[in-house]
Amino acid sequence: MPTRPTILVFDSGLGGLTVLREIVKALPHAHYVYVADDAFFPYGHHSEDAIIARVVPLIGELIAAHAPDLVVIACNTASTLVMSHLRSAYTAPFVGTVPAIKPACANSRTKRVSVLGTKGTVKREYTQALIRDFAQGCEVTLVGSPDLASLAESALNGVEVSDTAIEAELAPCFVGAGDDASARTDTVVLACTHYPLLMDRLVRLAPWPVDWIDPAPAIARRVVDLLGRTEGEAGDAGAEMIFTSGRPHGLSATLTPFFGGRVPK
Ligand code: DGL
């Protein structure tokens, strides 16, 4: 691997930034290209065929343009569908993001786990298979949220998002009697990369405390396993932010922390 690998991180919007920031912490000297397919956002509202037809050729164009050493699909709605298509079409190594059902079920003491994702992610056969294989005796509640990704996107763009709107998306995750801690949901899988953008508010608005499972650190570890740790100065490696709509990002102050302090071009 080159001493300064190029890592391309892809999502439908800004959610993949929650994955990017963990990878940047692990590999601060890499060159990053973050691509938000905002022209097609939200993926959760598109059919499976439409997502495959959109993402597979688009990733091919991005590989041709940026020659990444590794591509991270930082989107559950896409990863639960396109990984095998991408791996058979392109030789670049890929890392996907899929619902962290196995660690969540291993972690739950009450054996009640909820998976909060887009409507697309929760109905995927891929997600059903993860439950069949890894529920480990847990009762798994799938919650397909219609709007939480868009609310997270708005909040990061500085638009006011009400507590009531977030609470409505969150409520179905909390199963069981709130006053009986031994028989209620104790673990919620964040199966959409947008949701950790709202982490503080999710914690505050939850009817009772739960463990929130965000797979981003595990994804970063997987990237390090594949690329290896290399040394270098973070300051020398640039970072780019691309919106498929072509809009200028104009969000630098908000984006900089996700890029480890760098201002993306
Ligand atoms: N960030 C995406 C995910 O992880 C989805 C948001 C969307 O485009 O619906 O599923």
Total separate domains: 2
Which second-level CATH architecture of the largest domain applies? Answer: 3-Layer(aba) Sandwich
Shape: globular
Structural class: alpha/beta
Largest sheet: 5 strands, parallel
Describe this protein's structure.
By secondary structure, the protein is an alpha/beta fold. It has 11 helices and 9 strands. The protein folds into 2 domains: 135 residues, Rossmann fold (3-Layer(aba) Sandwich); 114 residues, Rossmann fold, CATH 3.40.50. Strand 1, helix 1 and strand 2 form a beta-alpha-beta unit. The two termini are 24 Å apart. Bound molecules: D-glutamic acid.
Distinctive features:
about 260 residues; alpha/beta; five-stranded parallel sheet; four-stranded parallel sheet; 9 strands; globular; binds D-glutamic acid
What's the SSE blueprint?
Blueprint (H helix, E strand, L loop, with lengths): L5 E6 L5 H10 L4 E6 L11 H19 L3 E4 L2 H14 L4 E2 L5 H7 L4 E7 H5 L1 H10 L4 E7 L2 H9 L6 H8 L16 E4 L8 H7 L5 E3 L2 H12 L11 E5 L8 H4 L10
D-glutamic acid binds next to helix 3.
Summarize the model shown:
By secondary structure, the chain is an alpha/beta fold. It has helices at residues 17-26, 48-66, 76-89, 101-107, 119-123, 125-134, 148-156, 163-170, 199-205, 216-227, 252-255; strands at residues 6-11, 31-36, 70-73, 94-95, 112-118, 139-145, 187-190, 211-213, 239-243. It folds into 2 domains: 6-97 and 217-259, Rossmann fold (3-Layer(aba) Sandwich); 101-214, Rossmann fold (3-Layer(aba) Sandwich).
